[in-house]
Amino acid sequence: MRSLMPAIVAIGMLMASAPALAQLFDPRYPVCMHVYGEQEGDRMDCIFTSPDQCAASASGRSATCLVNPYYAAAPRLRPPPARGPGCGRSCAASHHRKEAGAR
Fold first, then answer.
1. Which of 9, 22, 48, 91 has a beta carbon 3.0–4.6 Å from 54's, enabling a disulfide?
2. Domain that holds residue 57
């Protein structure tokens, strides 16, 4: 029985803990608008792609535009490797033809 007591206490503590809060900041958008006040409530809207877009929406309201600290920009694609100086599509095509003829 004594060996079960720590396990029972641990399970009880886990079940009694408060539920996690939802994330306020949507990582897909770089700009958020913090709306506050009694009329519209207190909330964070992270749905804007630019500060100007957010400012237009916040105009005349109890709101402030903020940079989203959790914004996760799309990964940048690496450019294709260079083929050498002055070598474009025609150079690559002629090089491919030379290799095919050598077989």
1. 48
2. 22-71
